[in-house]
Amino acid sequence: MADIPNGEQVEVQGSGAKPYILKNTGGVYSCSCPAWRNQSTPIERRTCKHLRKIRGDEAEDARIGAAAARAATSAPNRATNRVATSKRATASSDGKAPPLLLAHPWENDTDLTGWWMSEKLDGVRAYWDGTRFLSRQGNPFYAPDWFTEKLPDYPLDGELFGGRKKFQRTVSIVRRQDMSADWKELAFVIFDAPGLDKAFEERISHVKEYVEDVAPPYAEWLPHEPCQGVTHLRQELARVEGLGGEGLMLRQPGSRYEVGRSYTLFKVKSFHDDEARVIGHQPGAGRHRGRLGALEVELRNGTRFSVGTGLSDAERENPPALGSIITFRYQELSNDGVPRFPSYVGVRIDAEPWEPKGKRKRA
Q1: Is 120 a catalytic residue?
Q2: What is the average pLDDT across 343-359?
């Protein structure tokens, strides 16, 4: 069977007058047909009969899993398609998210003196379960064997990191399923060992010793230092953000690894961030004529607004698909709950999709 070369597209005639457009963008395949667009699973795990026609059943089964492919293409209508894609998500993730520790935002109400401080990495959270990487939602990341060489057979918590200001490039590599050589641009930066029932200091010391003694080729341990107070924290935050970093993480001394959101872990940033669902594409004007001007997005509560900054020229030429979940940054919320000065960060590949709330008045 034929394939779609990376960065190119083909047309397939459907039942209507206009053909459907099939694309391969960095190893992620898409189709403009309603069956592909209306699926509620992450875009890299969608398929349809048109992709199968071009690439073949075997290639599509291998790309997203045989059970997932059958579920996505057997639905006779949109309602049953939602059920099928829900089953597919379960099949691709084994139905179980990893037991991760999550942070609360710091609201200046906790004295962080003596807490362990580290840079908040702008990468993709990854849980090494002893055999493979899993996303926050339990979906596998297809890392090459040479990337995972010498990683231990017990759990590690960390970030797949390509460097500061390279979040979208990191996402484009991690979401691919062809185990490409592009993984050489990344490192697995480890900041915890969840399986060790010990204090944080002992866990991070164990991680450091393992990395230094065994020397996994693409693994690093994340350094931490004691916070000396608010002045020290704000100085370090300014330094990290000045270098293009996202912010800081603060970990309570002596704390155990907890599953879920915990007040033993805080994230500190100058800007807020959130997730939104793409519901439309606004055409550009001026230098952006003929391509995307802004993304129409919707928060989980139904509030709708536009995100028009932070997008590269390449992203405007090939914008996130409708239904994609994006991350954006903003300064504050207006009195109506609308994010002020939102700026696009990237597509989330580990976010749980949600259904639209229905048409609401634009805020």
Answers
A1: yes
A2: 73
